[in-house]
Write a structure and sequence with these properties.
Strand order of the largest sheet of chain A: 5-6-4-3-7-8-9
Shape of chain A: globular
Distance between the termini of chain A: 61 Å
Radius of gyration of chain A: 20 Å
Oligomer: homodimer
Largest interface: A-B, 62 and 61 residues
Largest sheet of chain A: 7 strands, mixed
Low-confidence stretches of chain A: 1-9
Order of helices and strands of chain A: HHEHHEHEHHEEEHEHEEH
Helix content of chain A: 40-55%
Chain lengths: 219, 219
């Protein structure tokens, strides 16, 4: 128990944020039947330094061998494990609007070992129907459903104004909230894990780059 | 010209990535009629150190005054400008599937001064219809449309296998590609700005945190 606790505190947030990227590249390498890869090769592929790769993977006990590199399948397996893809997590989508439905129809969950089991909404026209084989239930049944069905993750796609109240409710019945509502939920205010995602931040970064590129040309 | 170029190279990628977050918080402060804020207050709100805030904003000429703090509206205006929200960018969505439609229906673009003007798809049933007031055209008309209508940004939501070819085409007619296709487009391979977004990376981070939290409890 002590060992895991120590390991957890050693790993910086920045490294954790990079793990999903390793996961994606290793998944691709497996598809290409690549058996092993050196930190140098992996660094070229991912556009980061080999030393960063070695440092990052060392945080988790370092799975490489000098002169051999990394065994792709083994490394992929270890990172999958760290990311909980073998935990059989169950997710629900709260809010069956355009975004909720887009997420429900994507293969993102399945591919990462997560079962997306149901959607919830307040719209009477949607309640009782299903989407991509997943039932849409009334939001009134959300808490009971999550507790009875051991739901781990709630994907929050409700309007901004409803986000806080809904997150408070979800804190009583899931382990983690993936927040797409266009507002920042302060993780410290909730007793469960909260991950905020702001899609538009990435759009703004693109706009910054376009503006910078073109303001040079035009002057 | 030289001055802009120098300014650009000084600003690290990490700072640029944080700008949209400043933008969001400042937008909220304006809504709350907050006129000025100290770096200490802003740091508490955003959960970063006051010194990081001062450093970040210094990169852009530092808009604060000792003893007064930052003028919220002025700072918001300056950051908006850096992020190109007053440039009147025009965007199209390539791929009118569930994700493309979710993006088309969101207010994300409008709120940031971007006009989302049309969607493009290969599905004959969709071509000629419209969605949230935006026409859906054949992908065959994409290049010509973008050139004729001065489109700046293409939002790519096509399937993974079509992403590279579509990005190559778009490189001839837009300034930037916002890539949602579940594959990493290497920005070096395209003559335009490419911003890859991987929504699922954030889901994986959430799973990592859930697993770590609960593996401690259970042992």
């Amino acid at each position: 128990m002590r060992r895991i606790k120590e390991k957890k505190t050693e790993v910086s947030n920045a490294v954790v944020k990079r793990l999903p990227r390793y996961y994606r590249y290793l998944t691709e390498l497996i598809k290409q039947n690549k058996l092993r890869i050196s930190s140098t090769e992996l660094s070229k592929l991912m556009g980061v330094t080999a030393s960063q790769i070695r440092q990052d993977l060392n945080c988790f006990g370092g799975f490489g061998q000098q002169g051999y590199g990394y065994n792709v399948t083994y490394l992929h397996g270890k990172i999958s494990e760290l990311l909980g893809t073998d935990e059989g997590y169950r997710a629900v989508i709260v809010g069956a609007g355009n975004l909720g439905r887009a997420l429900a129809s994507s293969r993102m969950f399945d591919k990462r070992g997560i079962s997306c089991v149901a959607l919830f909404d307040t719209d009477e026209k949607l309640i009782g129907t299903s989407f991509y084989g997943k039932p849409i239930y009334s939001i009134k049944a959300l808490k009971e459903y999550c507790l009875e069905n051991n739901v781990d993750i709630a994907v929050l796609t409700v309007p901004k104004d409803a986000a806080f109240e809904m997150a408070s409710l979800l804190s009583q019945c899931v382990k983690g909230i993936w927040n797409f509502a266009n507002t920042e939920l302060n993780p410290e205010e909730f007793p469960v894990i909260v991950e905020n995602i702001h899609i538009a931040d990435s759009l703004m970064t693109l706009c910054y780059e376009i503006r910078n590129e073109h303001s040079e040309e035009e002057i």
